[in-house]
């Protein structure tokens, strides 16, 4: 399942995971599947939490 991206901030959060933390796109999709299986929506904020990060960990403006 693809993450739900509704804004530039959402896109920035996912790019941060990929570029700064080395999380693969496949791992993000897997996390989205697992989050959806728990009955939650796969928003980037939930994906960040899945990997142990918080929104506050993401620095910089959306690109």
Please, could you describe this protein's structure?
The chain is 54% helix and 0% strand. With 63 residues, the chain is mainly α. Helix 1 packs parallel to helix 3. The longest helix is centred in the first third of the chain and has 14 residues, at 8-21. The chain has helices spanning 8-21, 25-37, 44-50. The model has no long low-confidence stretch (mean pLDDT 93). It contains 3 helices and no strands.
How would the blueprint of this fold be written?
Elements: H1 8-21, H2 25-37, H3 44-50
Helix pairs in contact: 1-3
Short description:
This protein is mainly alpha-helical and 63 residues long. Helices cover 54% and strands 0% of the residues.
């Amino acid at each position: 399942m693809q993450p739900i991206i509704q804004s530039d901030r959402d896109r920035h959060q996912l790019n941060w995971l990929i570029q700064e933390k080395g999380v693969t796109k496949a791992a993000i999709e897997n996390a989205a599947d697992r989050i959806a299986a728990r009955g939650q929506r796969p928003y980037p904020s939930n994906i960040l939490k899945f990997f142990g990060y918080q929104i506050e960990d993401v620095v910089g403006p959306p690109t």
